């Protein structure tokens, strides 16, 4: 079973506003509410691609119930911990002349809730895969990622981590199976600006030297680079298309890579699946389906 953890799930309120101006009333031209949070997006795309997963994490209030309900409608299993105080957040994703995001705070998670998550993780076995992604709400210690990695280490399960900066750096010593920073996050870690696929390769290799087994760097419209544990460097430009909503493109890439890897055991095929899955999500309001990914794969060879 693939388990995803979302520490701070959300309802993503995706809106379009013509020429947004602060300080006045703006009206939406388009609006959609989607279940969100990085692990949840991974679970949705895995379901769309025909892979079972169980979404773990913390939920609260009516927004939490709605997220859970919507996620289950995609066929994903859920085993969320229901937190008593506060509400699961609503994250606003506004498309206008620029893209603006306002992400909420989330509920008040107590030590006993964290303990419940640890108890769930104690039941995982060697055959399971764990995806940990997204930010840590302020009510959780910033050592959450490390604590989880330490706890599951002896089980030898494959762990995928999609987190930024310090959260990511601190888990490398536990040798995660896959990490997926984007080029800006990779650049921030090493205090450099990385704009081309060739530029990211040496820095991706550094993260591998620091412990990650496979390093997948997403680069939005520039494509992606994979430095794999069999010393291969695989890279590709992105499929061509019109971006409609890039929220969740990175999560879709993680899901596509995992699905491809489980189906073929081949890193090149997993990479292409991840790449096309990311783009398929970027080219629509919602997240990629299997059919979208197959269609985009065909266009990639024509590019
Ligand atoms: N403008 C685009 N054109 C084509 N493909 C794109 C575009 N933006 C994203 N993608 C696809 O999605 C993948 C992941 O995108 P990106 O690098 O933006 O991830 P991310 O920064 O983790 O995104 P997010 O945090 O919004 O999920 C890219 O590698 C690419 O395959
Ligand atoms: O605060 P986090 O967890 O880092 O990011 C949350 C979030 O912006 O990421 C997802 C896209 O990747 C969205 O569905 C969600 O709103």
UniProtKB/TrEMBL annotation:
The keyword ATP-binding applies. PROSITE patterns: PFKB_KINASES_2 (PS00584). CDD domains: FruK_PfkB_like. One of its GO terms (cellular component) is cytosol. The keyword Nucleotide-binding applies. Keywords: ATP-binding, Kinase, Lactose metabolism, Nucleotide-binding, Transferase. It catalyses: beta-D-fructose 1-phosphate + ATP = beta-D-fructose 1,6-bisphosphate + ADP + H(+); D-tagatofuranose 6-phosphate + ATP = D-tagatofuranose 1,6-bisphosphate + ADP + H(+). Residues 8-289 form the Carbohydrate kinase PfkB domain. Gene3D superfamilies: 3.40.1190.20. GO terms for biological process: carbohydrate catabolic process; D-tagatose 6-phosphate catabolic process; lactose metabolic process; small molecule metabolic process. Catalyzes the ATP-dependent phosphorylation of fructose-l-phosphate to fructose-l,6-bisphosphate. NCBIfam families: 1-PFK (TIGR03168), pfkB (TIGR03828). Belongs to the carbohydrate kinase PfkB family. LacC subfamily. This is Tagatose-6-phosphate kinase. It comes from Holdemanella porci. The gene is pfkB.
